[in-house]
Amino acid sequence: MQFHRNTIFVLLLAVLSVGSSADQTPAAPPASGNTRPAPRKIHQPAASSRRRRSSPRLRRLHQAFVASASLKPMARQLLADRTPVAYAGVEAYARRHAREDAGALAWLVAGYAHILDHDYGKAIDSLSRAKSQAGDLGDYVSYYLASSYFDNSRIPEASALLSDFGHSYPDSLLVRDAQVLYANALLADGQAQAAADQLEKNRQPTRADVELTLGRAYAALGDPVKASAVLRNLYFTMPLSGEAVQADLELKKLPAAVQLPAQTFAERKTRADLLLKGKRYDDAADVYRALVDDADPSVRPALQLALASAQLRGGHDKDAKRTLDSIPDSSPELNAERLFDRGELARSADDDEGFLAILGQLRQTAPASQWLEQDLLVAGNIYLLKPDPDHAIDCYRELQQRFPNANRASYAHWKVAWLSLRMGRNDEAKEEFEQQIALYPTSAEVPAALYWRARLAEEESESAKARAYYEKLSGRYRNYYYGYLARQRLAKLSDDTDPVQYALLDHIPPISSSVSVTPDPLPTDDLRVQKAQLLENGALLDFAVRELQAAAKDNPGNWLPTESARLYQDVGRYDMALEVMKRAAPNYFAVDLPNLPRSYWEALFPKPYWIDLRRFSSSTGLDPYLVASLIRQESAFNPNAVSRKDAVGLMQLLPKTGKLVAKQVKLRHFVATELFTPAVNLELGTRYFRDTVDKFGAFEYALAAYNAGDDRVKDWLAQGKYRDPQEFVESIPFTETREYVQAILRNANVYRQLYGAP
Q1: Residue 71 to residues 75, 77, 101, 141, 556: CA-CA distances in angstroms?
Q2: pLDDT, tens digit, for every residue of 289-331?
Q3: Element (H or E) spanning 272, and its range?
Q4: How far apart are CA 142 and CA 655, in angstroms?
Q5: Residue ending a domain, choose from 206, 230, 261
Q6: Are residues 742 and 615 both part of a single domain?
Q7: Of the candidates 274, 299, 329, which is a domain's last residue?
Q8: DSSP-assigned states of every residue in 534-588
Q9: In terms of domains, do 711 and 630 share one?
């Protein structure tokens, strides 16, 4: 059975559904005036409009929570390592508290750990001991005890626990899981009809494990038609689930003599489209290939294009080329898409000239196509990297003028403005910066447009204009990269001119959440909240988070992200806490520090491993807050992080880099796995970053090299003179690297504001 295994940490991700994760400020209604509106105090609805009377269940849960506080470190150790010593510690605690709910929690923890180890016999022993004192944790104990019985082939005992689960625990979050497990137990016991009846009553909302078990039940009943219908629906409409593979195997077991409906073309295409969307490119290509063979000529070109797309994304360029070559002329839209795919093949082969030739064909044959829009952006970027700024400007300008309302239009307009500045065409740049604000006032490029328009005003001694732009930038984009730079420039400007109102600045809408958030209290009189706190003491973090989410449905307010972040921080999952709070306060970079609770900021800008971080930063002459900001960007303080390129740990060092630096600092007997140890990673990472700073002479250059490599930064520095490092940063042609450098410098400033002197 797969539906109850590997659950730990999976449910953690569910809490991330709170709000949006974007750091950028969303569009807001326009307002007049250049000044930032005063924040409005908003007191969210109280977590509970009426305090519940304390019930015996609440008192019992609270008593168990208080009594089990000392279990927490032992439970964490056990679930992390599952060593004999860790088991012995938790079990000894459970025996000392045998007549208490705290003891039952300890046995639940031990039993769950045994399940993770697939030792179901020992899990049964531990969970059976938990049963008598389980109280409001009875649903967890009963469910996991039943699952252990099932996996130990003790089906009658499993069925006995599960048959009345919904009645015994009607409010349990495990009711649906228990229904599936019970159906599997009935099926294993030869009661296929009872299993089918059980599942038919509980098919909504659709779940892959329910459908798989139901299909198996109908097959066991000798009803291949119903079995086929259920299993096929699973196979075709949920192809990304693990159960889809099992459904295919079950379908192949159905009697060959029975006449079953043939797979329809629409079913197969649905599956292929879902596989492609789910990035299962090779699987999608297999299905599309078969569809092409069976398709009518009228729909075949579209399927061939989908096949080519899957092949391209899967890295099979030769196959994709053969597919594209086989497609006949079709509708203008399909022809345009085919040209676009040919362009992608040219790019993959580093054939810039071939790509640009295809762009010319698109311009002639599909001048209003989305494919031309995409390729104009690509062409601009190609010229940007050459570097050939004049041709890059031509491509970006064409994109913006042909598609002024497209998603890429604002970015393209900005690149024209910026490259004009870099080419020394200041008059053009001034006009284009102002157009950026007027045409795209909610775009991500507006802070840069404000800042550099003000810089040009400074250079022309227009102090009043420069001050107005800087003040707008500082007020509206408070803790953005350019907001901080604007305040630095303002401090140097003379204040001997009268303020001037510029109507253009009124285009920029105020931030939609320019409010002061008052956190709601945790509804501790809610049974689920108390239950979550008790589960937290057992280090059953995934269960605790799920209970908190359920409690939030009955207790409106903003307490859930705060409590979830605290829970994650408490177990060292600072990365999870950070994501939770980003979604809860997506506009946090635009607000003053007092406008959000301190708990929000500390989750957004944590200081774990601070003693070692400060020690190694100081020993290498680095600002600890800059290092903390770099770590926040690299790993979000997850010491076990591993990148796609195998960079490891807090500061994301490659093993070969770690080995090299370890020799420099005379760290004896170094092995690559030590990079997962925070202190070692910090010692080597700070030394490596210090060497990079010394090599390039400025933090901006060093950060760019840390992300993109030394050679690229040397090339970029050689591409003409820059006013200052800030102009270099905005000129970085890689969006990822440019935003990386800006984010780290921005975040370091927030750290300083939050915590003062390191």
Answers
A1: 6, 10, 12, 17, 31
A2: 999 999 999 999 999 999 999 999 999 999 999 999 999 999 9
A3: helix 265-277
A4: 46
A5: 261
A6: yes
A7: 329
A8: HHHHTT-HHHHHHHHHHHHHHS-SSHHHHHHHHHHHHTT-HHHHHHHHHHH-TTG
A9: yes
Q: In angstroms, rounded to a whole number, what is the distance separating the alpha carbons of residues 642 and 335? A: 42
Flag whether 551 is in a domain: no
Q: Do 719 and 638 fall into the same domain?
A: yes
Whether residue 25 contacts residue 557, with contact meaning beta carbons closer than 8 Å, is answered with no
Q: Are 247 and 233 in contact (CB under 8 A)?
A: no
**Calpha distance 215→654 (Å, rounded):** 48
One domain for residues 318 and 205: no
Same domain for 423 and 485?
Answer: yes
Task: For residue 364, give the nearest of 388, 335, 393 by alpha carbon.
Answer: 335
Give a three-class secondary structure readout of 380-401.
Answer: HHHHHHCCCHHHHHHHHHHHHH
- For residue 203, the enclosing domain spans 190-261
Count helices and strands in the chain by DSSP H and E runs: 39, 2
3-state secondary structure of 288: helix
Take residue 682 and report the two structure tokens written for it: 């910090």
* Domain membership flag for residue 444: yes
Q: What is the pTM of this model?
A: 0.87
> Closest Cα partner for 35 from 473, 434, 330, 373?
473
C-beta neighbour count of 285 within 10 angstroms: 26
Does 580 map to a domain? no
- Same domain as 622, residue 501: no
**CA distance linking residue 754 with residue 596, whole number of Å:** 12
Locate 170 and state its tokens: 């009607």
Specify whether 320 is located in the same domain as 455: no
Contacts of 226 (CB under 8 A, 6+ apart): 218
The candidate with the shortest Cα–Cα distance to 271, out of 299, 248, 298, is 248
Closest alpha carbon to 527 in 558, 548, 556, 557: 548
Q: Give the CATH number, domain containing residue 680.
A: 1.10.530.10
Q: In the chain, how many domains are there? A: 5
Residue 425 structure tokens:
């065409």
Categorize the per-residue pLDDT at 581 as very low, low, confident or very high, splitting at 50, 70 and 90.
very high
The CATH code of the domain that includes 350 is: 1.25.40.10
Give the start-end residues of each E strand in 10-163.
Answer: 40-43
- Using a CB cutoff of 8 Å and minimum separation of 24, what contacts does 86-90 make? 86/113, 87/113
Token duo for residue 536: 């937290």
Mapping DSSP to helix (H, G, I), strand (E, B) and coil, where does residue 325 land? helix
DSSP 45: P
10-15 long-range contacts, Cβ below 8 Å, gap at least 24? 10/542, 11/542, 11/543, 11/545, 11/546, 12/541, 12/542, 12/545, 12/568, 12/573, 12/576, 14/545, 14/546, 14/549, 15/545, 15/548, 15/549, 15/560, 15/564, 15/576, 15/580
Contacts 24+ apart (CB under 8 A), 354-363: 355/379, 355/382, 356/382, 362/336
Q: Is residue 324 part of a domain?
A: yes
Please report the sign of the dihedral spanned by the C-alpha atoms of residue 195, residue 201, residue 14, residue 541: negative
H helices present in 326-425, as ranges = 332-348, 352-365, 370-385, 389-402, 409-422
User: Which of 467-476, 510-519, 643-652 is predicted with the least confidence, judged by mean pLDDT?
Assistant: 510-519
Q: Within this chain, do residues 619 and 748 fall inside the same structural domain, yes or no?
A: yes
> Each residue of 589-602: pLDDT tens digit?
988 899 899 999 99
Q: Are 172 and 138 in contact (CB under 8 A)?
A: no
Whether the ω angle into residue 205 lies within 30 degrees of 0, i.e. cis, is: yes
Report the alpha-carbon distance of residue 583 to residue 259 in Å, rounded: 52
CA atoms within 13 A on the CB side of 61: 21
pLDDT of 425:
97
DSSP helix/strand/coil, 462: coil
